[in-house]
Description:
Strand content of chain A: 15-25%
Structural class of chain B: alpha+beta
Helix content of chain B: 40-55%
Number of helices of chain A: 9
Number of helices of chain B: 26
Helix content of chain A: 10-25%
CATH architecture of the largest domain in chain B: 4-Layer Sandwich
Strand content of chain B: 5-15%
Distance between the termini of chain A: 52 Å
Largest sheet of chain A: 5 strands, antiparallel
Number of domains of chain B: 3
Shape of chain A: elongated
CATH topology of the largest domain in chain B: Aldehyde Ferredoxin Oxidoreductase,  A, domain 1
Radius of gyration of chain A: 22 Å
Radius of gyration of chain B: 22 Å
Number of domains of chain A: 2
Largest sheet of chain B: 6 strands, mixed
Distance between the termini of chain B: 30 Å
CATH superfamily of the largest domain in chain B: Aldehyde ferredoxin oxidoreductase, N-terminal domain
Oligomer: heterodimer
CATH class of the largest domain in chain B: Alpha Beta
Number of strands of chain A: 13
Amino acid sequence: MYDLRIVVEEVRGFCxxxxxxxxxxxxxxxxxxxxxxxxxxLWALQSLMPMIPAKQRHIxxxxxxxxxxxxxxxxxxxxxxxxxxxxxxxxxxxxxxPSVPGQESSSQSSSSGPPEDSTRGVARQTQVPADRTxxxxxxxxxxxxxxxxxxxxxxxxxxxGETGKASAKPSPDIPPRLLVNTAxxxxxxxxxxxxxxxxxxxxxxxxARIQVKKDEPAGLDxxxxxxxxxxxxxxxxxxxxxxxxxxxTRAVRLDVSRCTGCLLCMKACPFEAIRPHPRTNLPLICDLxxxxxxCVARCATGALRFGKAGENPPIGYRALTLKRFPG
Amino acid sequence: MYGYAGRILxxxxxxxxxxxxxxxxNLIRNYLGGxxxxxxxxxxxxxxxxxxxSPSNPLIIGVGPLNGTLFxxxxxxxxxxxxxxxxxxxxxxxxxxxxPELKLAGFDQVIIEGQAEVPLYLLIQxxxxxxxxxxxxxxxxxxxxxxxxxxxxxxxxxxxxxxGPAAEKGVKFAGxxxxxVRAAARTGMGTVLAAKRVKAIAVRGTLPVRVAxxxxxxxxxxxxxxxxxxxxxxxxxxxxxTTKLVSALNTLGALSTYHYQSGRFAAVDxxxxxxxxxxxxxxxxxCFSCTIPCSRFFEIKKGPQAGLKSEGPEFEGLAGxxxxxxxxxxxxxxxxxxxxxxxxxxxxSTAEVLGFAMEAHQRGMISREEADGLDLTWGxxxxxxxxxxxxxxxxxxxxxxxxxxxxxxxxxxxxxxxxAMHIKGLEFFMAExxxxxGYALGLAVASRGGDHLRSxxxxxxxxxAAEGLRRFGAAESAFRLEYRGKGRLVKHFEELSALADAxxxxxxxxxxxxxxxxxDTAQLLEATTGFSLSAEEIQQATERIVNxxxxxxxxxxxxxxxxxxxxxxLKEPLPQDSGPSAGSVxxxxxxxxxYYEARGWDRETGLPTPEKxxxxxxx
Lengths: 327, 619
C-alpha cells in the first residue's frame, strides 16, 4: 500500500476557488489530510475520490492503465486544473511536509503533452513520466510454451526507498500493444475486415480477432481488442499449453496443433476479447500481426493505435494517416 | 465466386416461398453490380405501366462486387422498383452496414415479389430466408422497430432495413431506413415495401467474401487510401461531411433559400455545418469499411430540443429544414430531420412540400383554414415540426402534401403548379439550380426524376479552364455559371455515378474526389472478381445502365419534353441578394442539345437512337 500526495501541478484554465499550483492533500490509510490553513476543491476531490484507493494499491499487471496514470484533470471544462498523484510507501510520508510540491517536476509538467490532449478528454491519463514513482514491474520475459504466467517477483517494497523523489528511473520496457480510444472510433469496422484479410485472406468479420461493439442510438462504438495482459488469464487457463507468448512482441500465440478447442481461454478472458472461429471452433487469438497490426494500419481515426499505455496519442487524422501511407 | 456472392435471391410474398438462382456472367460483364443489376431486372420483370403499388411491382435490392470488402466506402446498396410517387424509375441508395451484410449473407441481389397476406418481416440469414410475423411491429417508428427486432433476434449484428409508419400510411415518399438513419429514402421505396405488407428486412451474414488476387487487391487499397487521404478535401469532409455545403453554397449564392426565392440565407451562420460542428458534434462516424468518416454524431445539450441525439444530418436535411424554409433555428432543423428519420419520410421531398406550402401561404394561395390553422409563415418552427407529423399520418394539410409536391399542386390548383418544385414528379436538392448549371442539367435528365446524385458534376466548381478544355472540349465546363460543355460534362459524371452505384461504393470518393478512373476500375475489378474487363468495357457498362434506365422511363412516357426544370429556374433571374450568382438563369435548351448529342440520343425526342442501342447491345 502507498500513501498519496495529490498536488496541483498546473492550472491550464481558470479556477475561481482558486486552487493554485503547489496546493495539495495527503492520503494516509483511510484519512485525508489538508495542510493547516489551506483548502481543497470539493468538486475536484469528488472526482479524484475513485482514483484514491486505486492509487493506494500496488498493481502488478503491467499493462493496466492505473500504474501509468499519474494525473487527473478537474471536471470543470473551464478549470482544467491538473492534479498529480505521488505515491510513497505507506508510513513514509512525513507528518506535515512544508515543501512546495510541484516544483521538482515542473519540467515534466511542461512537457506533458499538447493542450488538445487534456481539453479533448481523449486521454485524461497522461503519458508515463520519466520519474515514475511506483515500482517498475518485472521486465517482460518470454514464457515458454505451456508455461504459466507468473506475477512479477519483486515485492511492492522492492524499490520503496527510491519512491517519492525524482528518481529518473526508466519506464519498464513494455512492448507495444493495441490501444483503443473509443471516443474517436467512427464505428466503421475496417479493423475487423483488415484483421480477417490479414489472417485468412478473406473479408469475414466473424473471424476477426477484433470486434467493434456498437450502440447506434447512443452513437457509441467500442472496439474490443486483446490487451495482451501482462499476466494473461487465457494463457494460464489453457489446459493443453497451447497458448504462449511471442519472445519479441509478447503477443499471445496459439499453437493449433495443441489446441483442442475447449475454449477455456475464451471463458477466462476478462475482456471478452476471445471468440471462437465459426468453422474450426478454435479460439481467435490476436497475434499483433507479428508487430505490425493490420487493424491499426487501416484505422482512419486513430481510435486504434499500437503503442504503450500512457503514451501520448498522436493528434489529428491526417498526420496519423499520412505517416501510414507515405506518398 | 470472387467479389460477388454469386447468388440471387427471389422471394415470393404471396406464396411465401423463396428460391435462389446463380448470378450470370452476362449480368456481371454488362451491368457490373448494384444499380446495374437492378435496372436490368426491373426492365425485364416490372409490369408495364406506372403503378408502383401493384403487387406485381418487384422490389429489388442489389449490391456490388466490392461490398463486404475493405474497399473504402463500399457500404451501399440500391433499392429499385417502379416508383409509386413518380410512376417511373424508383431507385434509391443508402450507406451504413446493411449492404455489406447482405453480401456476407450470400446474395448479390434480392427480388421481392407479390404481396403478403398479413404483415411480416423477412429474416435473411446465410443463404436462407424466414417469413416472420410483424403484426407487433406494425405502427412502430423506424427506431422502435430497429430496437424491437434487435431484441427479438438477440443479435446486435443483425442489420435491419425498416419501413416507417409513413410508409404504412401510404405516404408516397416514404423510404427504407437502415442503421436508424441510413435512408434509401427517395422515390418511395418504403411505400412499395409497406404496400407488400413487409415491415422490415433483417439480414445477418457470416459467409466470407473472397477476392481473386489478394496481394494486388491489398496494394490497390493502399493506393486508393492514399488518394483519399492526400485529397485536399479530406479534412473538411471528415470534419463536416456534406454539411460543408450549407456555407459553401451560400457563399456562391447557390443555397436554396425561402424555397428557391434567393441563393443566400442571411442567418446561414446559425445553421451551417460549421455551426452544427461547433455546437453539437460529438464525433465522426463512418459507414462500413470507410477511410473517410464523414458522418457525424451530434447531441443537443440545451434548449427546447435538449436530449436530441443522432447520427447525421447531411446537407440536404440541414439546408432543407433551415434555409429552404427560412428557419434560422438549428435545433428545430435537427429535430425535423430526426422526425423524418423516425417516421420514415424522405426528408428531401418533405422539405419541398413544406416549402411549397409556405410559399403558397406567402402568395395567398392557401388559407389558414386549409392549413388546419397552422401559421405557415417562413421559419415557423412549430409549424414545421407539426406538419411533418401530419404528413406521416396523412392528416389534414398533411394528406394534401403526402403524395408529393406535384400531386399537391394539382389538388390545390390556383396556379400553385408554378411553385411546385419537381422534375418528373420528384422533388430535388437544396442547392439553387441557377447557380450551378451543370447540376441543373443533371437534374433535368436524371432517370429517376429531380436528382443530383445521378450525375454530381462537381468538376464545374473547379474553375480550371485548361482542364475543362482538355476533358470536356470547352473551358466553360469548369465554371458553374457557364452552360457550354455541360452536356459532355454531365454525360461523363452520369457514367461515373453509375459506376459508383453499380459498385455500390460511395460517390464522395468516386464521383466528387474522383479516386477511381475507368482504367483503375478495370484493374480493381480483375483483382476483386477475376473477370477481366477493359476500361472501355466498364465505361460502356455504365453507359448501358444510363441508357437502359432511359428506355425504362421512355416506356412510361418520358421524352425530351419531360427533361425540364420548373419555369422559375429558366425565366426568373436569381435575385440581387444572391451574391455572385445574382441575375443567373438556367440555359437549359442548349445544354440539352449538347447532352443528347453527347449521348447519341435523338435531339427531338430525347430517346436513345437505334444505333446507340445497337452499340450497347440493348436492341
